[in-house]
Write a structure and sequence with these properties.
The complex is a heterodimer of chains A (117) and B (308). Chain A is built from four helices and no strands. Chain A has 117 residues and is mostly helical. Chain A is elongated, with a radius of gyration of 17 Å. Chain B is globular and about 60 Å long. Chain B has two domains: 1-117, NADH-ubiquinone/plastoquinone oxidoreductase chain 6, subunit NuoJ (Four Helix Bundle (Hemerythrin (Met), subunit A)), CATH 1.20.120; 137-308, no CATH class. In chain B, α2 (29-49) packs antiparallel against α3, α8 runs antiparallel to α11 (240-262) and α8 (150-170) packs parallel to α12 (272-299). Classes of the chains: A mainly alpha (117), B mainly alpha (308). Chain B: Belongs to the CPA3 antiporters (TC 2.A.63) subunit B family.
Chain lengths: 117, 308
Protein backbone atom coordinates (compact mmCIF):
# COMPACT_ATOMS: atom_id res chain seq x y z
CA UNK A 1 0.00 0.00 0.00
CA UNK A 2 1.43 3.35 -1.04
CA UNK A 3 1.68 6.35 1.28
CA UNK A 4 -1.24 8.12 -0.37
CA UNK A 5 -3.50 5.09 -0.07
CA UNK A 6 -2.56 4.67 3.57
CA UNK A 7 -3.34 8.31 4.23
CA UNK A 8 -6.67 8.05 2.44
CA UNK A 9 -7.64 4.96 4.42
CA UNK A 10 -6.63 6.51 7.75
CA UNK A 11 -8.52 9.66 6.83
CA UNK A 12 -11.67 7.64 6.16
CA UNK A 13 -11.29 5.80 9.45
CA UNK A 14 -10.99 9.05 11.41
CA UNK A 15 -13.90 10.73 9.64
CA UNK A 16 -16.03 7.61 10.11
CA UNK A 17 -15.21 7.53 13.83
CA UNK A 18 -16.09 11.24 14.06
CA UNK A 19 -19.43 10.57 12.38
CA UNK A 20 -20.13 7.91 15.00
CA UNK A 21 -19.71 10.53 17.72
CA UNK A 22 -22.12 12.86 15.92
CA UNK A 23 -24.61 10.04 15.55
CA UNK A 24 -24.31 9.16 19.24
CA UNK A 25 -24.64 12.83 20.17
CA UNK A 26 -27.80 13.22 18.10
CA UNK A 27 -29.32 10.03 19.53
CA UNK A 28 -28.41 11.32 22.99
CA UNK A 29 -30.16 14.63 22.44
CA UNK A 30 -33.28 12.82 21.34
CA UNK A 31 -33.29 10.01 23.89
CA UNK A 32 -31.70 11.22 27.12
CA UNK A 33 -34.11 12.28 29.86
CA UNK A 34 -32.93 15.70 31.05
CA UNK A 35 -31.14 18.83 29.95
CA UNK A 36 -27.76 18.17 31.52
CA UNK A 37 -27.41 14.68 30.06
CA UNK A 38 -28.42 16.02 26.67
CA UNK A 39 -25.81 18.78 26.85
CA UNK A 40 -23.28 16.14 27.81
CA UNK A 41 -24.15 14.13 24.71
CA UNK A 42 -24.02 17.19 22.45
CA UNK A 43 -20.66 18.44 23.61
CA UNK A 44 -19.10 15.03 23.05
CA UNK A 45 -20.17 15.27 19.42
CA UNK A 46 -18.66 18.75 19.11
CA UNK A 47 -15.40 18.00 20.86
CA UNK A 48 -14.43 14.49 19.85
CA UNK A 49 -16.60 14.08 16.76
CA UNK A 50 -15.45 17.28 15.10
CA UNK A 51 -11.88 16.66 16.30
CA UNK A 52 -11.81 13.29 14.56
CA UNK A 53 -13.38 14.71 11.39
CA UNK A 54 -10.79 17.51 11.38
CA UNK A 55 -8.02 14.97 11.88
CA UNK A 56 -9.33 12.96 8.96
CA UNK A 57 -9.59 16.04 6.73
CA UNK A 58 -6.12 17.22 7.78
CA UNK A 59 -4.70 13.99 6.37
CA UNK A 60 -6.15 14.94 2.98
CA UNK A 61 -5.00 18.58 3.15
CA UNK A 62 -2.74 19.95 0.42
CA UNK A 63 -0.47 22.08 2.59
CA UNK A 64 0.35 22.99 6.17
CA UNK A 65 -1.67 26.20 5.98
CA UNK A 66 -4.82 24.21 5.32
CA UNK A 67 -4.07 21.94 8.28
CA UNK A 68 -3.66 24.99 10.50
CA UNK A 69 -6.95 26.44 9.32
CA UNK A 70 -8.75 23.16 10.04
CA UNK A 71 -7.18 23.11 13.48
CA UNK A 72 -8.35 26.67 14.08
CA UNK A 73 -11.90 25.69 13.12
CA UNK A 74 -11.80 22.87 15.64
CA UNK A 75 -10.39 25.03 18.42
CA UNK A 76 -12.98 27.76 17.83
CA UNK A 77 -15.86 25.29 17.85
CA UNK A 78 -14.45 23.64 20.99
CA UNK A 79 -14.29 26.98 22.72
CA UNK A 80 -17.66 28.26 21.54
CA UNK A 81 -19.47 25.02 22.27
CA UNK A 82 -18.14 24.75 25.82
CA UNK A 83 -19.19 28.32 26.57
CA UNK A 84 -22.57 27.82 24.89
CA UNK A 85 -23.09 24.63 26.87
CA UNK A 86 -22.25 26.44 30.08
CA UNK A 87 -24.63 29.28 29.19
CA UNK A 88 -27.51 26.93 28.41
CA UNK A 89 -27.00 25.10 31.70
CA UNK A 90 -26.69 28.43 33.51
CA UNK A 91 -29.90 29.83 32.09
CA UNK A 92 -31.72 26.57 32.88
CA UNK A 93 -30.42 26.84 36.45
CA UNK A 94 -31.69 30.42 36.69
CA UNK A 95 -35.06 29.60 35.21
CA UNK A 96 -35.83 26.35 37.02
CA UNK A 97 -33.54 26.19 40.01
CA UNK A 98 -32.55 22.62 39.44
CA UNK A 99 -31.21 21.98 35.94
CA UNK A 100 -31.72 18.25 36.31
CA UNK A 101 -35.42 18.98 36.60
CA UNK A 102 -35.31 21.38 33.67
CA UNK A 103 -36.87 19.04 31.22
CA UNK A 104 -39.36 20.60 28.94
CA UNK A 105 -42.18 18.63 27.38
CA UNK A 106 -41.48 15.54 25.30
CA UNK A 107 -41.31 17.63 22.13
CA UNK A 108 -40.03 20.99 23.30
CA UNK A 109 -36.85 19.85 24.97
CA UNK A 110 -35.08 18.72 21.85
CA UNK A 111 -35.32 22.22 20.43
CA UNK A 112 -33.93 23.73 23.63
CA UNK A 113 -30.86 21.60 23.38
CA UNK A 114 -30.37 22.31 19.71
CA UNK A 115 -30.44 26.01 20.37
CA UNK A 116 -27.63 25.52 22.85
CA UNK A 117 -25.15 24.74 20.11
CA UNK B 1 -22.29 24.97 -13.83
CA UNK B 2 -24.77 22.10 -14.09
CA UNK B 3 -23.70 20.18 -11.02
CA UNK B 4 -25.23 16.78 -10.64
CA UNK B 5 -27.94 16.42 -8.05
CA UNK B 6 -26.83 14.46 -5.01
CA UNK B 7 -29.00 12.78 -2.42
CA UNK B 8 -27.68 15.45 -0.03
CA UNK B 9 -29.29 18.17 -2.14
CA UNK B 10 -32.65 16.43 -2.06
CA UNK B 11 -32.43 16.04 1.72
CA UNK B 12 -31.54 19.74 2.00
CA UNK B 13 -34.50 20.82 -0.12
CA UNK B 14 -36.96 18.67 1.84
CA UNK B 15 -35.54 19.86 5.18
CA UNK B 16 -35.64 23.52 4.10
CA UNK B 17 -39.29 23.33 3.07
CA UNK B 18 -40.18 21.45 6.23
CA UNK B 19 -38.26 23.84 8.53
CA UNK B 20 -39.73 26.87 6.78
CA UNK B 21 -43.18 25.44 7.31
CA UNK B 22 -42.50 24.57 10.96
CA UNK B 23 -41.05 28.03 11.67
CA UNK B 24 -44.26 29.56 10.36
CA UNK B 25 -46.67 27.06 11.82
CA UNK B 26 -45.41 26.18 15.28
CA UNK B 27 -47.44 27.80 18.01
CA UNK B 28 -44.44 28.17 20.32
CA UNK B 29 -42.52 31.31 19.33
CA UNK B 30 -39.24 30.10 20.84
CA UNK B 31 -39.41 26.95 18.78
CA UNK B 32 -40.27 28.97 15.70
CA UNK B 33 -37.20 31.17 16.21
CA UNK B 34 -34.91 28.17 16.67
CA UNK B 35 -36.36 26.60 13.55
CA UNK B 36 -35.78 29.85 11.69
CA UNK B 37 -32.11 29.85 12.74
CA UNK B 38 -31.62 26.23 11.67
CA UNK B 39 -33.41 27.12 8.43
CA UNK B 40 -30.85 29.89 7.83
CA UNK B 41 -27.91 27.57 8.49
CA UNK B 42 -29.26 24.94 6.10
CA UNK B 43 -30.01 27.65 3.54
CA UNK B 44 -26.37 28.70 3.62
CA UNK B 45 -25.42 25.05 3.00
CA UNK B 46 -27.76 25.15 0.02
CA UNK B 47 -25.93 28.23 -1.30
CA UNK B 48 -22.63 26.38 -0.94
CA UNK B 49 -24.09 23.49 -2.94
CA UNK B 50 -25.14 25.99 -5.61
CA UNK B 51 -21.55 27.23 -5.82
CA UNK B 52 -22.24 30.63 -4.26
CA UNK B 53 -19.99 30.85 -1.18
CA UNK B 54 -20.37 34.66 -1.03
CA UNK B 55 -24.11 34.37 -0.52
CA UNK B 56 -23.60 31.44 1.85
CA UNK B 57 -21.31 33.53 4.07
CA UNK B 58 -23.77 36.40 4.15
CA UNK B 59 -26.72 34.10 4.82
CA UNK B 60 -24.99 32.28 7.69
CA UNK B 61 -23.73 35.47 9.32
CA UNK B 62 -26.71 37.75 8.76
CA UNK B 63 -29.69 35.51 8.03
CA UNK B 64 -29.04 32.88 10.66
CA UNK B 65 -26.67 34.59 13.08
CA UNK B 66 -27.62 38.23 13.51
CA UNK B 67 -31.30 37.90 12.60
CA UNK B 68 -31.54 34.90 14.93
CA UNK B 69 -29.91 36.80 17.78
CA UNK B 70 -32.26 39.72 17.13
CA UNK B 71 -35.30 37.44 17.26
CA UNK B 72 -34.12 35.70 20.44
CA UNK B 73 -33.45 39.07 22.03
CA UNK B 74 -36.93 40.22 21.05
CA UNK B 75 -38.43 37.11 22.61
CA UNK B 76 -36.54 37.81 25.82
CA UNK B 77 -37.84 41.39 25.77
CA UNK B 78 -41.40 40.17 25.34
CA UNK B 79 -40.84 38.74 28.75
CA UNK B 80 -40.59 35.33 30.26
CA UNK B 81 -43.49 36.21 32.53
CA UNK B 82 -45.76 36.98 29.63
CA UNK B 83 -45.81 33.31 28.77
CA UNK B 84 -49.08 33.79 26.92
CA UNK B 85 -47.24 36.11 24.54
CA UNK B 86 -44.91 33.34 23.51
CA UNK B 87 -47.56 31.32 21.81
CA UNK B 88 -49.61 32.58 18.96
CA UNK B 89 -53.01 31.72 17.64
CA UNK B 90 -52.85 29.67 14.51
CA UNK B 91 -55.55 29.40 11.95
CA UNK B 92 -56.46 30.46 8.49
CA UNK B 93 -57.68 34.03 8.57
CA UNK B 94 -58.57 35.80 5.32
CA UNK B 95 -55.45 37.97 5.63
CA UNK B 96 -53.20 34.93 6.04
CA UNK B 97 -54.87 33.16 3.15
CA UNK B 98 -54.28 36.24 1.00
CA UNK B 99 -50.60 36.41 1.95
CA UNK B 100 -50.20 32.69 1.33
CA UNK B 101 -51.80 33.01 -2.10
CA UNK B 102 -49.59 35.98 -2.99
CA UNK B 103 -46.46 34.05 -1.91
CA UNK B 104 -47.52 30.99 -3.88
CA UNK B 105 -48.16 33.18 -6.91
CA UNK B 106 -44.74 34.82 -6.63
CA UNK B 107 -43.04 31.45 -6.16
CA UNK B 108 -44.90 30.13 -9.20
CA UNK B 109 -43.79 33.11 -11.27
CA UNK B 110 -40.16 32.60 -10.22
CA UNK B 111 -40.23 28.91 -11.04
CA UNK B 112 -41.93 29.64 -14.37
CA UNK B 113 -39.39 32.31 -15.30
CA UNK B 114 -36.52 29.91 -14.64
CA UNK B 115 -38.21 27.14 -16.62
CA UNK B 116 -39.05 29.50 -19.49
CA UNK B 117 -35.45 30.68 -19.96
CA UNK B 118 -34.45 29.91 -23.54
CA UNK B 119 -32.03 26.99 -23.79
CA UNK B 120 -29.58 29.02 -25.80
CA UNK B 121 -29.40 31.91 -23.31
CA UNK B 122 -26.05 31.79 -21.55
CA UNK B 123 -26.79 34.39 -18.93
CA UNK B 124 -24.54 37.30 -18.09
CA UNK B 125 -21.64 35.20 -16.83
CA UNK B 126 -19.75 35.52 -20.11
CA UNK B 127 -19.84 39.32 -20.40
CA UNK B 128 -19.16 39.66 -16.65
CA UNK B 129 -16.03 37.52 -16.89
CA UNK B 130 -14.94 39.27 -20.10
CA UNK B 131 -14.92 42.68 -18.43
CA UNK B 132 -13.26 41.39 -15.26
CA UNK B 133 -9.90 42.82 -16.33
CA UNK B 134 -11.36 46.33 -16.33
CA UNK B 135 -13.27 46.00 -13.07
CA UNK B 136 -10.35 46.46 -10.70
CA UNK B 137 -10.94 43.17 -8.87
CA UNK B 138 -10.64 39.53 -9.86
CA UNK B 139 -13.63 38.18 -7.95
CA UNK B 140 -16.60 38.34 -10.35
CA UNK B 141 -19.06 38.66 -7.45
CA UNK B 142 -17.32 41.75 -6.08
CA UNK B 143 -16.98 43.14 -9.62
CA UNK B 144 -20.74 42.77 -10.08
CA UNK B 145 -21.68 44.21 -6.69
CA UNK B 146 -19.33 47.16 -6.63
CA UNK B 147 -18.69 47.94 -10.28
CA UNK B 148 -21.20 46.64 -12.83
CA UNK B 149 -24.16 46.99 -10.51
CA UNK B 150 -22.83 49.58 -8.07
CA UNK B 151 -26.23 51.28 -8.08
CA UNK B 152 -27.91 48.30 -6.42
CA UNK B 153 -25.29 48.07 -3.71
CA UNK B 154 -25.40 51.82 -3.08
CA UNK B 155 -29.14 51.60 -2.56
CA UNK B 156 -28.74 48.53 -0.32
CA UNK B 157 -26.43 50.51 1.94
CA UNK B 158 -29.03 53.27 1.83
CA UNK B 159 -31.77 50.88 2.91
CA UNK B 160 -29.70 49.80 5.91
CA UNK B 161 -29.11 53.43 6.81
CA UNK B 162 -32.85 54.13 6.63
CA UNK B 163 -33.54 51.09 8.82
CA UNK B 164 -31.39 52.35 11.66
CA UNK B 165 -32.78 55.88 11.30
CA UNK B 166 -36.28 54.45 11.57
CA UNK B 167 -35.28 52.54 14.67
CA UNK B 168 -33.83 55.64 16.26
CA UNK B 169 -37.08 57.48 15.61
CA UNK B 170 -39.33 54.73 16.94
CA UNK B 171 -37.47 53.03 19.75
CA UNK B 172 -37.65 54.95 22.98
CA UNK B 173 -37.85 51.87 25.17
CA UNK B 174 -36.14 52.11 28.50
CA UNK B 175 -33.13 49.79 28.60
CA UNK B 176 -33.36 46.38 30.17
CA UNK B 177 -31.68 45.97 33.51
CA UNK B 178 -28.20 44.73 32.64
CA UNK B 179 -27.81 40.98 33.08
CA UNK B 180 -25.36 39.86 35.73
CA UNK B 181 -21.88 40.02 34.19
CA UNK B 182 -20.88 36.50 33.32
CA UNK B 183 -17.20 35.55 33.55
CA UNK B 184 -17.50 32.94 30.80
CA UNK B 185 -19.07 35.39 28.37
CA UNK B 186 -16.34 37.85 29.20
CA UNK B 187 -13.72 35.23 28.41
CA UNK B 188 -15.46 34.37 25.14
CA UNK B 189 -15.50 38.06 24.27
CA UNK B 190 -11.82 38.55 25.02
CA UNK B 191 -10.88 35.75 22.66
CA UNK B 192 -13.48 36.12 19.91
CA UNK B 193 -13.67 39.90 19.53
CA UNK B 194 -10.06 40.43 18.37
CA UNK B 195 -10.43 37.40 16.12
CA UNK B 196 -13.65 38.82 14.64
CA UNK B 197 -11.88 42.11 13.88
CA UNK B 198 -8.95 40.36 12.22
CA UNK B 199 -11.17 38.03 10.17
CA UNK B 200 -13.41 40.95 9.14
CA UNK B 201 -10.37 42.79 7.81
CA UNK B 202 -9.28 39.62 6.03
CA UNK B 203 -12.72 39.16 4.44
CA UNK B 204 -12.73 42.77 3.27
CA UNK B 205 -9.30 42.43 1.67
CA UNK B 206 -9.84 38.98 0.19
CA UNK B 207 -13.16 40.11 -1.35
CA UNK B 208 -11.17 41.51 -4.29
CA UNK B 209 -10.19 38.07 -5.51
CA UNK B 210 -12.13 35.44 -3.51
CA UNK B 211 -15.45 35.08 -1.67
CA UNK B 212 -15.75 37.81 0.94
CA UNK B 213 -16.38 41.53 0.99
CA UNK B 214 -17.91 44.39 2.91
CA UNK B 215 -21.17 42.74 3.93
CA UNK B 216 -19.57 39.56 5.23
CA UNK B 217 -16.88 41.49 7.09
CA UNK B 218 -19.48 43.83 8.55
CA UNK B 219 -21.60 40.90 9.73
CA UNK B 220 -18.60 39.50 11.60
CA UNK B 221 -17.78 42.85 13.18
CA UNK B 222 -21.41 43.27 14.18
CA UNK B 223 -21.47 39.75 15.64
CA UNK B 224 -18.44 40.68 17.73
CA UNK B 225 -20.35 43.78 18.85
CA UNK B 226 -23.42 41.73 19.75
CA UNK B 227 -21.24 39.43 21.85
CA UNK B 228 -19.80 42.50 23.53
CA UNK B 229 -23.31 43.78 24.22
CA UNK B 230 -24.29 40.42 25.74
CA UNK B 231 -21.21 40.22 27.93
CA UNK B 232 -21.11 43.88 28.96
CA UNK B 233 -24.27 45.73 27.91
CA UNK B 234 -23.50 48.58 25.54
CA UNK B 235 -25.53 51.58 24.72
CA UNK B 236 -25.20 53.10 21.31
CA UNK B 237 -26.84 56.50 21.58
CA UNK B 238 -27.11 58.51 18.40
CA UNK B 239 -24.24 60.84 19.23
CA UNK B 240 -22.33 62.68 16.55
CA UNK B 241 -19.57 60.03 16.15
CA UNK B 242 -22.14 57.22 15.92
CA UNK B 243 -24.16 59.17 13.36
CA UNK B 244 -21.01 59.83 11.36
CA UNK B 245 -20.11 56.14 11.44
CA UNK B 246 -23.61 55.17 10.33
CA UNK B 247 -23.63 57.59 7.38
CA UNK B 248 -19.98 57.08 6.34
CA UNK B 249 -20.49 54.13 3.97
CA UNK B 250 -23.37 55.67 2.05
CA UNK B 251 -21.65 59.06 1.92
CA UNK B 252 -18.34 57.69 0.61
CA UNK B 253 -20.13 55.50 -1.94
CA UNK B 254 -22.25 58.40 -3.16
CA UNK B 255 -19.29 60.79 -3.06
CA UNK B 256 -17.14 58.52 -5.20
CA UNK B 257 -20.04 58.06 -7.63
CA UNK B 258 -20.59 61.81 -7.96
CA UNK B 259 -16.85 62.46 -8.28
CA UNK B 260 -16.71 59.98 -11.17
CA UNK B 261 -19.57 61.81 -12.85
CA UNK B 262 -17.82 65.14 -12.29
CA UNK B 263 -14.65 63.87 -13.95
CA UNK B 264 -16.67 62.86 -16.97
CA UNK B 265 -16.74 59.10 -16.50
CA UNK B 266 -20.41 58.88 -15.58
CA UNK B 267 -22.00 58.18 -12.20
CA UNK B 268 -20.33 55.20 -10.48
CA UNK B 269 -18.31 54.18 -13.55
CA UNK B 270 -14.75 53.73 -12.44
CA UNK B 271 -11.74 54.15 -14.74
CA UNK B 272 -10.03 50.71 -14.86
CA UNK B 273 -6.76 52.05 -13.47
CA UNK B 274 -8.45 53.37 -10.34
CA UNK B 275 -11.23 50.84 -9.95
CA UNK B 276 -9.40 48.56 -7.50
CA UNK B 277 -8.48 51.35 -5.08
CA UNK B 278 -11.90 52.99 -5.31
CA UNK B 279 -13.69 49.71 -4.65
CA UNK B 280 -11.50 49.06 -1.62
CA UNK B 281 -12.20 52.57 -0.32
CA UNK B 282 -15.96 52.15 -0.76
CA UNK B 283 -15.94 48.68 0.76
CA UNK B 284 -13.95 49.77 3.80
CA UNK B 285 -16.32 52.64 4.52
CA UNK B 286 -19.36 50.45 3.81
CA UNK B 287 -18.08 47.69 6.11
CA UNK B 288 -17.64 50.07 9.04
CA UNK B 289 -21.06 51.64 8.51
CA UNK B 290 -22.91 48.38 8.02
CA UNK B 291 -21.30 46.93 11.15
CA UNK B 292 -22.34 49.92 13.27
CA UNK B 293 -25.83 49.86 11.71
CA UNK B 294 -26.32 46.16 12.44
CA UNK B 295 -25.06 46.57 15.98
CA UNK B 296 -27.34 49.58 16.35
CA UNK B 297 -30.30 47.51 15.19
CA UNK B 298 -29.44 44.90 17.82
CA UNK B 299 -28.67 47.20 20.71
CA UNK B 300 -31.71 49.29 19.91
CA UNK B 301 -32.29 52.99 19.87
CA UNK B 302 -32.02 53.48 23.59
CA UNK B 303 -30.58 56.92 23.79
CA UNK B 304 -29.03 58.09 27.01
CA UNK B 305 -31.97 60.41 27.59
CA UNK B 306 -34.73 57.88 26.98
CA UNK B 307 -32.99 55.37 29.19
CA UNK B 308 -33.11 57.47 32.29
Amino acid sequence: MSGDELRGALSLVFIGAGMLFFLAGSVGVLRLPDLLSRLHALTKADNLGLGLVVLGLALQADDTFEVLRLLLVWLLVLFASSVACYLVAQSALRAHGDPAAATAGPEGSGEDARDGR
Amino acid sequence: MAAEVHALDLVLVVLLVWLGWRALASADLFKAVVQFIVFGLLLSLAWVRLGAPDVALAEAAIGAGLAGALLLDTLARLGRDGAADETRPLGLTPARAGIALACLGLAGLLVASVLLLPESWRGLTGPALQQLGNSGVSNPVTATLLNYRGWDTLLEVGVLLLAVLGLWILDVEPPLPPPAPDPMLGLLLRILLPLAVVVAGYLLWVGAHAPGGAFQGAALLAAGGVLWHLARPLSLPATAPVRAAVVLGFAVFLGVGVAMAAFGGGFLSFPPAWAGALILLIETAAMLSIAVIMLGLFVGGRTGKAGE
